[in-house]
Amino acid sequence: MTVKSGLEGVVAATTSISSIIDDTLTYVGIGIDELAEFASFEEVVYLLWHRKLPNKEQLKELKAQLADHAELPEGIITFLKSTNFKDVHPMTVLRTVISMLALYDENAEAMDANSNYVKAIELQAKISTFVAAFSRVRQGLEPVAPRKDLSFSANFLYMLTGEEPNEIAEEAINKALVLHADHELNASTFTARVCVATLSDIYSGITAAIGALKGPLHGGANESVMKMLAEIGEVENVEAYIQEKMDAKAKIMGFGHRVYRGGDPRAKHLKEMSRQLGGITGELKWYTMSEKIEEIVTTQKNIPPNVDFYSASVYHSLGIEHDLFTPIFAISRMSGWTAHILEQYDNNRIIRPRADYTGPEKNSYIPIEERA
Ligand SMILES: CC(=O)SCCNC(=O)CCNC(=O)[C@H](O)C(C)(C)COP(=O)(O)OP(=O)(O)OC[C@H]1O[C@@H](n2cnc3c(N)ncnc32)[C@H](O)[C@@H]1OP(=O)(O)O
Ligand SMILES: O=C([O-])CC(=O)C(=O)O
Known about the structure:
With 372 residues, the chain is mostly helical. A 3-stranded antiparallel β-sheet has the order 1-2-3. β2 and β3 form a beta hairpin. The radius of gyration is 22 Å and the shape is globular. Bound molecules: acetyl coenzyme *A and oxaloacetate ion (OAA). Acetyl coenzyme *A (ACO) binds next to α15.
């Protein structure tokens, strides 16, 4: 048996949702640069779910559906308010709450295409309400009810802060959500597909996916990047800090990628946003430090930054708490996960690879009294 470590290069599914070919990312064939410039997140959700851009009516309908499903069940608000989350990571709570949502869905076990589509809307609508509510409740604040008249991005920021965001913040979040929405067979999407390929339900698939996204080698890297930037503190400390890490052969968070070799096409958009937002807040140092880290890592190791690297300083400049960075990634990736789950159900076969056994060939049962 030949083992492909980390399944590198193994093609394990077909998909018509997104592609990465020669370092170019597309959603349903539309280049990520175009989508980053022109698309709203709601358009991207529609695109991933239906494989075509919505017309005006279709977009209006999707926005109304997302708005109609945005409220959290009262039981989840009660759970949030009755639990002390001081030392609990928001991704841990998010994973639990996504699983809990099934308890409030009378149709939770239904597996027909329409029921699963409605569940996808539910999950996409509620995840941002939850992340915002969690952030407020742990600060001792009341959750802010979702509004129907705001865009998905503006509504998230509104629920987080209680104030309508300015256009710059809304556009920045929109672009970040567009850029993170889907990414072929990344670890969390693969996890979701493996889970639902047993014909388990969509809540189980998303719960599993959130668990996979949480790790610092995947979505958790954005928070780790910010931790690194905060540890470095000032631009003049960058060189010594990064050199020490590289000498110790430590991974620099936010760099490297399994598929991209010439660089992650999403990073340049986040880099530019980081520069612009840093200029607006007057705290350009996070961008400057990031740029210096990029220069050192690419010069010495030829490893370019990935999507997580500049998203850290983008979210920081927007005043977002650092442990919400990965939950925001999850808000966006919910669109891709649900699209992949629906695609898996449409043409399902259980995913069950093999393992090359490396244990002892022959062994026998020794009674416990005789064991060392
Ligand atoms: C949204 C996302 O999930 S994007 C990825 C987010 N994750 C991170 O930013 C964490 C840091 N990066 C990494 O750990 C890796 O690059 C991954 C997990 C993204 C990809 O992992 P793999 O494809 O298995 O690459 P692998 O770890 O084998 O790296 C190949 C070589 O590049 C080096 N390398 C890869 N990433 C980095 C890094 N961030 N810093 C330093 N060296 C690195 C490895 O040490 C290895 O070197 P070697 O061949 O001398 O041993
Ligand atoms: O594709 C991957 O391996 C990780 C990634 O960049 C993503 O999920 O956006």
